[in-house]
Amino acid sequence: EDKVVQSPLSLVVHEGDTVTLNCSYEVTNFRSLLWYKQEKKAPTFLFMLTSSGIEKKSGRLSSILDKKELFSILNITATQTGDSAVYLCAMAYTGTASKLTFGTGTRLQVTL
Amino acid sequence: KAGVTQTPRYLIKTRGQQVTLSCSPISGHRSVSWYQQTPGQGLQFLFEYFSETQRNKGNFPGRFSGRQFSNSRSEMNVSTLELGDSALYLCASSLERSDTEAFFGQGTRLTVV
User: Is there a contact between B104 and A99 if contact means CB atoms under 8 Å apart?
Assistant: First the structure.
């Protein structure tokens, strides 16, 4: 059975800290790994990773995939209160664009 | 360009009733997927439609069904509602390309009483 496991489940940090969120997976027919940020309702797309070892970066956020060890990390540097959200990791499969298997998410709270 | 639009945003129904939710994808997107999100189970895949055909289905009972129209808009129907169907129902649309990503709507919050 396909599994996507995120850790930690929740995290409280102070503004300015750097955080690392983890996502490990066991899936068949892996195509890509996606990261989403969910603040209230709609998950918003952050990154899609397909190849190992290639870092994707957007501002203070970055992510990398290790297809050999079957995990990905999402780094957020210089955290801000606006980064408080649930971060979701999801797997996409070969043969279909849109069927995603999600992890349970990491709830990040950034305090002043 | 406009994002994924879901209607209604909120819905309260009684056990045993049926409900229809609507999703309009981003213009040009041909694939629409539906997800159920609950505190206990997280985000779970319901089904995916492309060119009016269901391509994938998750592990949900037959009470959950959907369809897609020629303009790519999609509807999801739940019949004989149960209390456990209370959830946030999210729709996502994507292009049909090898490196596509899915964009989500704001969801419909369904409460079954």
Answer: no
